[in-house]
Design brief:
Elements (H helix, E strand, L loop, with lengths): L3 E3 L5 E3 L1 E4 L8 H12 L3 E3 L7 H10 L8 E6 L7 H12 L6 E4 L4 E2 L22 E2 L5 H8 L11 E4 L3 H9 L9 E5 L7 H10 L2 E5 L13 H10 L3 H11 L3 E5 L3 H6 L8 H8 L1 H5 L11 H4 L2
Parallel strand pairs: 3-4, 3-12, 4-5, 5-6, 6-9, 9-10, 10-11, 11-12
Antiparallel strand pairs: 1-2, 7-8
Helix pairs in contact: 1-2, 2-3
This protein binds adenosine-2'-5'-diphosphate.
Keywords: NADP, Oxidoreductase
Pfam families: Aldo_ket_red (PF00248)
Protein name: NADP-dependent oxidoreductase domain-containing protein
Length: 306
């Protein structure tokens, strides 16, 4: 698919992106981005904490495709929420690019850096109890957003947004006195066992683009092994990954699919339209089977803000 959706900034965003989380081998980031751009992808998603911005940026630069034809996203790590402008500058220098298309706050969680030694901010600082050192009283994501909303004016990024934000987090951000800008996007885990109907509806009403990460369920792609998915893909004679990615696209949001295998990267872009019946069957899977959250780190905002 070469289709694009529209952000609340007016910019177009290609609906299928290559995800690069865990593309960590010596050349995984580079090779997968080269393969994706060759296969026609024009949207690449990375993050400072993925540790592959240098490879991803080099692949974008080496591809020969004009920079303005590629949509590039990266993310602010939790240790740098006091200084998003500085963090973005570092990201651009690792990527070797002049600007991003989208810069996201990676989590609505600020890490305390009192125990960070030197300048390596790509860490998970620990407190006395060996848990992630989360800053709660003196700072929070609302203050981070107040700094981030100034970034488009610097020219370093065309748009800013958030990631892993719940409805409550978004409500707090949107109604805070210092808020001047609605996030362009909220990047969250979505797949048939975590369909996020309410969060998607809320974001739509506010004009916030949804981006689905771990669309196949991340490591080992558990969603591909769901009996119902296998049954429908057999019936339609399409690979399960193609069925699920098509289902995401049909829901009308951006989907970020990670692979380091060229043949999968090529196949994952081939989407088709599902019948209403098949679309609904996948939509109802979580109701029947219960939900599954695969990305649940120990700084997860879900218990934190409950
Ligand atoms: P790999 O990188 O080895 O191809 P998600 O996008 O939900 O994070 O899921 C990505 C997982 O699914 C990765 O482990 C990826 O592994 C695997 N994957 C990606 N595309 C396909 C595909 N077409 N068929 C099977 N597995 C896939």
């Amino acid at each position: 698919s070469t289709a694009t959706l529209k952000l609340n900034t007016g910019a177009n965003i290609p609906e299928i992106s290559l995800g690069t989380w865990r593309s960590l081998g010596a050349t995984d980031g580079y090779d997968s981005v080269i393969a994706a751009l060759k296969a026609g992808y024009r949207h690449i998603d990375t993050a400072a904490i993925y540790g592959n911005e240098d490879q991803v940026g080099k692949a974008i630069r080496d591809s020969g495709i004009p920079r303005e034809e590629i949509f590039v996203t990266s993310k602010l790590w939790n240790t740098q929420q006091h200084n998003p402008a500085g963090a973005l500058k570092d990201t651009l220098s690792r990527l070797g690019l002049d600007y991003l298309d989208l810069y996201l706050m990676h989590w609505p969680v600020t890490f305390n850096t009192r125990n960070v030694k030197g300048t390596d901010f790509m860490v998970i600082p620990k407190n006395e109890n060996g848990k992630p050192d989360i800053e709660m009283d003196t700072w929070n994501f609302v203050k981070t957003w107040e700094l981030m909303q100034e970034l488009p004016a610097t020219g370093m990024t065309k748009a800013v947004g958030v990631s892993n934000f719940s409805i409550n987090n978004l409500k707090e951000l949107l109604t805070s006195p210092g808020n001047k800008l609605t996030p362009a996007a909220n990047q969250i885990e979505i797949h048939p066992l975590l369909p996020e109907h309410d969060l998607i509806k809320f974001c739509r009403e506010k004009g916030i683009m949804i981006e689905a990460y771990s669309p196949l369920g991340s490591i080992n792609a558990p969603i591909l092994k769901e009996p119902k998915i296998i049954e429908i893909s057999k019936k339609l004679d399409v690979p399960p990954a193609q069925l699920i990615i098509s289902w995401h696209v049909q829901r009308g949001y951006v989907v970020l699919v990670k692979s380091t295998h060229e043949e999968r990267i090529i196949a994952n872009r081939k989407v088709f339209t599902l019948s209403k019946e098949d679309f609904e069957a996948i939509k109802n899977l979580a109701k029947e089977k219960g939900t599954l959250r695969v990305v649940d780190p120990d700084w997860s905002p879900f218990p934190l803000f409950k």
